[in-house]
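Intended use. Records such as the Ankyrin repeat and SOCS box protein 4 entry shown here are meant for training and evaluating sequence-to-structure methods. They are not intended to support clinical decisions.
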Amino acid sequence: MEETRHSTRTADEILMKEACLQALKSNDFEKLQEFLVEKKLDVDTVFEMEDQNLVLASYKQGYWLPSYKLKCSWATGLHISVMLGHIECLLVLLEHQATINCRPNGKTPLHVACEVANVECIKILLDHGAKLNCFTLSGHAPLHLCASEESVSCAKELVWRGANVNIQTNNEIEETPLHTAARMGIPELVAFYINQGAVVDSLNAHMETPLACASYWALNQKDQKYSTVHHIICRMLLDYKAEVNSRDEDFKSPLHKAAWNCDHTLLHMMLEEGAEANIMDVNGCTPIQYVIKVTSVRPAAQPEICYQLLLNYGAARIYPPQFHKVLEACHSNPKAVEVIANAYEHVKATSKWTAAIPEDVLKRYWKFYESLFIACSNSPRSLMHLARCAVRVTLSRRCHQAIPLLLLPPQLKKYLLLEPEGIIY
């Protein structure tokens, strides 16, 4: 008899809980009020809610997760009301003293409000005592979750209410909100954080500055497209006096990251701001070597401009006996090969050169490669070329700034700056 009563009570509770969840989903705050007042439903009842995008959930790095995609998360009524933007239900729950900082699945309601960029919910939660700098289970503070253009107003509200603008994630990345804004490409947030006291050269766990993060993420690796907003952020950070020659844990500078992306816009920007063209990473590689490594896998890039810029700002040339590696990387881009070849007074062709160029590429660009092999034979290069080299040696790393100031015809200035012509002589 007792067992029957217990099972009946349990079934009733399940039905009431399901009915309450439907009220929350439909923003039926009057029905919700009825459950809380008349049926004495616990205001902090935890529901199972559909959540394929894990808006409600946060998991610690290293925790085991099933191989299939999770479709549901645990959440209180507060979390659900915030996720759905149901202000009326939210106010009813807070009126009944719902626990405002609970984390049934790793996030507080404030984290969820930031995730869905609902500034009205954020204001209400903060008015009722939500913690500004609390962390999710994965170590993110509310500011770190303001990671879209839509959440700019949310981040502003948090900072105005006292959120720590330099708070680092409580995980192995140790990223500040400025790193997040730079990585996600949100110029307005970058400017706001800095104006509110964010450290421009703050470091994450990998010793990367926000400038280094923005430089790396300026290329969408999936579709190989360059991001104008990341370029704008880099310009902003440099204007705010970010250190252009900062080094991460592998001694890579922001220039290395721009070179890895074959991003001539950022290379130009950073070199103008004093980036060291010959700075070496932990393996002794300079930015020009990075460009060579990725030329063949950056279809949207203009590598010849990257080589021009680096050489005109004093980058060391590739060791002549290793020139065949330039051909291996750049054979399908004759302009890039031309720029690098013209940086030498003379470089002698070897059997490795021919082996480095696929036969179909050689046929396609035969006119150019024929001129390359002739110019790089045992005979010296033209007197005009040798004069160019003499001027460039004299100006060294000042080529890019000094040559445009010379009283010479524009075409000759382009020649001195290694502008490709499609043929070598």
